[in-house]
Design brief:
Elements lengths: L12 E5 L2 H4 L40 H15 L3 E5 L2 H4 L10 H16 L3 E7 L5 H7 L6 H16 L6 E5 L9 H5 L10 H25 L4 E8 L2 E3 L4 H23 L4 H9 L8 H7 L5 E6 L3 E3 L33 H15 L3 E5 L9 E2 L5 E2 L3 H20 L3 E7 L19 E3 L11 E3 L1 H11 L6
Parallel strand pairs: 1-2, 1-12, 2-3, 3-4, 4-5, 5-7, 6-8, 7-9, 9-12
Antiparallel strand pairs: 10-11, 13-14
Helix pairs in contact: 2-4, 6-8, 8-11, 12-13
Bound molecules: 6-O-phosphono-beta-D-galactopyranose.
Protein name: 6-phospho-beta-glucosidase
Family: Belongs to the glycosyl hydrolase 1 family.
GO molecular function: beta-glucosidase activity
C-alpha cells in the first residue's frame, strides 16, 4: 500500500484499548468496591484482582492506577489520537446501589482525562466492561434484576455529568452479545448458568438492552455532542460447506451476534427474535416504557474482532469450542494463535461490510490484536525490547483489510488495538498472553518490576499512525 494515497480518512482515530479491571490494579484503593471480575476464578490460577497473594499477581493488574502518567506519555509517543478505557463502576459506586458517588473514584478519572487532554488524545470510554459491582451481583442477581437499570442510570448520569466536557466518545456495554454465553461475566448473574432458564437469560439481556438505550438517551440530554455507541463481539460465521443447510446455520449463528446490533441500531426487536421467543415459549416482560426507550438508537456501532468461525448443520461436526471463542467449528483454511483463536484478516473486511451495509451507521473497530508469548531481550544498544514481528504481521494484515473495507465504502471512525500495553487476559487471567506495544515486566508468578519497555511493534505502530496508514 505504501506508494498509494492513504485510504484512511483525515482525522481517523488511531489508538489502543484497555479495560479498568484488566490493568488498573488498586482493586480496593480510595474507596473502590469489588467488581465481579475481582473474584472471578479463571484460568489455572484462580482469581483475578481480589486479594493479592504471592502466587496470584494478577490481582494487581499492571498498576495503571499509579502509573497512568507514564503510560499515557508512551501512548502519546506512539501518536495515539484516541485511547479506549473503561470506568470501573465500583470505583464510582462501590456497591452499585449507593446513593452517593465516591469522590475519590471520580477524581481518578478526572486526572486520567486531563492527562490525555495534554496530548490531544480523545478518550473513548466504555461504561461497563464486564465490571458489574460485585454487591449488585450477589444481592440482586445482577442484570437478571430490573432494578439494575435504575442503578446503572444513576451511575451513567453521574459520569456523563462529571465528564461532559472531557469525554465525547462513549460505549455502553462491552461485547454485549457475550451475555448470551457468559451471564456472570456479561451481566453479573450470580445464579449459575446451568440453573438459569433461557427465559431468564433473555430477560437479563433485555434489561441490558434497555439500559444501553437509556444511556444513549440520558447522554444526549446531558451533552448533545456526545457520540455514543454499542459494542459487539464481532465473530462472523461462515458456512462450513456450501450445503444450503450449512448456509442457513451460519445465518442463524450470525443472528446470535447481530440481534444485539439490530436492537441498538433499529430501536426494536427484530422479527426473527419474536419467532425464536414464540417457538421456545419465552415470554419476556417488555413494558411500553421499555419499547419507547429502545427507540434511542446509537450514534455508531463498535466491535471487537479477533476471529471468524464456521457453522455446520451436522451435529457430529459441531464440536463446541473447537478452536473458537463461542463454539463453532474450526476453519480448515486458517491458522490459529497460541491460544487457538483462528486468524482471519479477510474476515475483518467481511464483517465491516456486513455491519456497514446492514445499518449504514459509522463503525469503530475498538479491539483487534494478537495475544502471544513475548520474549524480553536486550538489544545491541542495551535496551530491553521484544522482537514481535508476528504481532506486526498480524496487525498489518488486518489493517490492509480495513483499508480494503474503506475502499468498499465503509464509514469507519477509528481503530484501537486491544491491550496496547500488556495487561491481564480476560479469558485466562494470565499476563503471559500479551497483546501490547509496551511490554510490562510482570509475570504470572507475581515477580517483576512493573517497568515498561517499548516493543518493536511500538515503533511500527508509531509509523502507521504518523503516515495515516500509508506504510502498511
Ligand atoms: C475481549 C474482551 C477484552 C479482552 C479481549 C482479549 O473479548 O473485551 O476484555 O480481554 O477479548 O481476550 P483475552 O484477554 O481473553 O485474550
Amino acid at each position: 500500500m505504501s506508494n498509494l494515497e492513504s485510504k484512511f480518512p483525515p482525522g481517523f482515530l488511531w489508538g489502543g484499548a484497555t479495560a479498568a479491571n484488566q490493568f488498573e490494579g488498586a482493586y480496593n484503593e480510595d474507596g473502590k468496591g469489588l467488581s465481579i471480575q475481582d473474584i472471578y476464578p479463571k484460568g489455572i490460577k484462580g482469581g483475578r484482582t481480589a486479594r493479592p497473594t504471592e502466587d496470584n499477581m494478577k490481582l494487581v493488574g499492571i498498576d495503571f492506577y499509579h502509573r497512568y502518567k507514564e503510560d499515557i506519555a508512551l501512548f502519546a509517543e506512539m501518536g495515539f489520537k484516541t485511547f479506549r478505557m473503561s470506568i470501573a463502576w465500583s470505583r464510582i459506586f462501590p456497591n452499585g446501589d449507593d446513593s452517593e458517588p465516591n469522590e475519590k473514584g471520580l477524581e481518578f478519572y478526572d486526572k486520567v482525562f486531563d492527562e490525555l487532554a495534554k496530548y490531544d488524545i480523545e478518550p473513548l470510554v466504555t461504561l461497563s466492561h464486564y465490571e458489574t459491582p460485585l454487591a449488585l451481583s450477589k444481592n440482586y442477581d445482577g442484570w437478571k434484576n430490573r432494578k439494575l437499570i435504575d442503578f446503572f442510570e444513576r451511575y451513567v448520569r453521574t459520569v456523563f455529568t462529571r465528564y461532559k466536557d472531557k469525554v465525547k466518545y462513549w460505549l455502553t456495554f462491552n461485547e454485549i452479545n457475550s451475555t448470551l454465553h457468559y451471564p456472570y461475566m456479561g451481566a453479573g448473574v450470580w445464579t449459575p448458568k446451568e440453573r438459569l432458564s433461557t427465559e431468564d437469560l433473555y430477560q437479563t439481556i433485555h434489561h441490558k438492552l434497555v439500559a444501553s438505550a437509556l444511556a444513549v438517551k440520558v447522554g444526549h440530554e446531558i451533552n448533545p455532542e456526545f457520540k455514543i455507541g454499542c459494542m459487539i463481539l464481532g465473530i462472523p460465521n461462515y458456512p462450513l460447506t456450501p450445503k444450503p443447510s450449512d448456509v442457513i446455520q451460519a445465518m442463524q449463528d450470525d443472528r446470535q451476534n447481530l440481534f444485539f446490533a439490530d436492537v441498538h441500531a433499529r430501536g426494536e426487536y427484530p422479527k426473527y427474535m419474536k419467532r425464536l421467543f414464540k417457538e421456545n415459549n419465552i415470554e419476556l416482560n417488555i413494558t411500553n416504557e421499555d419499547k419507547e426507550l429502545l427507540k434511542h438508537t446509537v450514534d455508531f456501532i463498535s466491535f471487537s474482532y479477533y476471529m471468524s468461525s464456521c457453522s455446520t448443520s451436522d451435529p457430529e461436526k459441531d464440536i463446541q469450542g473447537e478452536g473458537n471463542f463461542l463454539g463453532g467449528v474450526a476453519n480448515p483454511h486458517l491458522e490459529a494463535s497460541d491460544w487457538g483463536w483462528q486468524i482471519d484478516p479477510e474476515g475483518l473486511r467481511y464483517i465491516l461490510n456486513q455491519l456497514y451495509y446492514r445499518y449504514q451507521k459509522p463503525l469503530f473497530i475498538v479491539e483487534n490484536g494478537l495475544g502471544a508469548n513475548d520474549e524480553l531481550i536486550t538489544d545491541e544498544n542495551e535496551n530491553k525490547t521484544v522482537n514481535d514481528d508476528y504481532r506486526i504481521k498480524y496487525l498489518n494484515d488486518h489493517l490492509v483489510q480495513v483499508a480494503e473495507a474503506i475502499e468498499d465504502g465503509v464509514e469507519l471512525m477509528g481503530y484501537t488495538t486491544w491491550g496496547c500495553i500488556d495487561l491481564v487476559s480476560n479469558s485466562t487471567a494470565e499476563l503471559r498472553k500479551r497483546y501490547g506495544f509496551i511490554y510490562v515486566d510482570r509475570y504470572d508468578d507475581g515477580s517483576g518490576t512493573l517497568e515498561r519497555y517499548r516493543k518493536k511493534s511500538f515503533y511500527w505502530y508509531k509509523g502507521v499512525i504518523a503516515s495515516n496508514g500509508q506504510i502498511l
